Fold:
Amino acid sequence: MRRLRRVWSDESGMSLVYVAIGFMTFMAASTLAIDVGMFMTARNQAQNSADAGALSGVTALVRNSWTDRTASGPAVQSAIDTAKKNGVMGSAPSVLTTDVTFPNDPAGNANRVKVDVFRTTGRTNAIPTLIGSLLGVNTVDIKATATAEASPANAMTCVKPFMIPDKWIENSDNKGKADGPWSPSSTFDLVNKGGDPLANPDVYIPATETGYTGYTVANDVGTQLVLRAGTGNQANPSFYYSWKMPGDTGGDFYRENIANCNTSVMEMGNKIIQEPGDMSGPTIQGVQSLIDQDPDAIWSTDCKCVVNSRFGGDTPRVFPIPLFDPGYYALGQTQGRTADFKIANFLGFFVDHVSGNQIYGIVTNIVGVVDKTSTAPANAFPKAIRLVQ
Structure:
C-alpha cells in the first residue's frame, strides 16, 4: 500500500513527457509554418510567371504582329512559353491558349494582353502540402493573373543620329501645280521658288492633333524605304539628314552612335540641329556595322517581323529613326530659320542592306518609353510596354 502511494505521488520523469509534448507541438507548428511559407512562395512565383507572360505577350504584339491574336500567333505563344519558363515550386504552371486573352483598356483600345497561370486541382498540378494532409488537406490551389498594356510612347532611347521627314498630304509642287498623292519622290512645299505662298500648299498634321498625316503602324509596317543623304533644303521622304546627338560631334562619334546605342532619352517635340559636314560615309559605315552584328536576320512578309535573328526579338538591326516635322522645317525656312528641326514622331526601321550610299530598310514596330512630364499622343508610332494589373 505504501509502495503504491509512492508510485502515485512520484513526479520523476514528468518533465520528459512535457518536453516530448512540447517538441511534437513545436514540430507541428514548424511544419505548418513551412506549409504556409511554401504556399506564399508559390503564390509569388505564380504572379511572377503571369507578369512575365503578359509582358512577353504584349511585346510580341508590338514587335511581331499587332493583328495576329490567334492561338498559334506570336502573342499567345510567346505569353505561354515565357510564363511556363517561370516555374512555380519547381514545375511549370499550366497555361493554355484560352488563358491568354486580349481585353480592351478603359478607353476601348485593344492594346492589352491578360495571362492566367494555374497550379490547381482542376489542372492536376496543385501544390502538395506537408502537414496539411494530417488535417485532411492534401493540396492547395494556386492561381495568378496579370495584364500588360502597349500604350503610346512619346520618347525613345538608342535613337540613331539621322532623321527623315514625317508623311504629309501632298497637294502641289513648288511651281503651284498639282503633284498627285504623296510618294517617296515628293517634296514638302509651302511656297514657290519665288518665295510666294502657294494657293494649295502641302499639309502636315502632327501626331498631337486629330487627322494625323504621318506614319502609322496600321498603314506603314512592312513598307520598304530607300534612304540616301539629303541634298538641297526641301523635305523629301527619301532624304535623311544627320543631326547632332547629345555628347559630342564629329564623324567617329556619329558613326559609333549608329553602330551602338546612345542611351540619351529623346522626346517628341525636342528641337534638334543638323550635324555639320557630310556624314554619308560614317552613316553607311555605322549601318553596315549593325548588319554585321546580326547577319542572318531577315524580314518575313508572313508575320511582318524579323526572323532568324541571333538576338531573338531584340535585334540591333531594328532601331528608331526620328521623324521631323516637315511643316515646322519649311515654315522656318520661309522665316529665315535654316536647318531647324523638331521631332514629330519616331519610326521603327529594320535595316536590310546598304548599296552604295543608299540604305534599304523596312518600316517595323518599335518599343519606346514614356516621358511622364508630357502626355504621349494617341498617334505616337512607338509603344511603351507596362504592367497595368
In short: The longest strand covers residues 340-355.
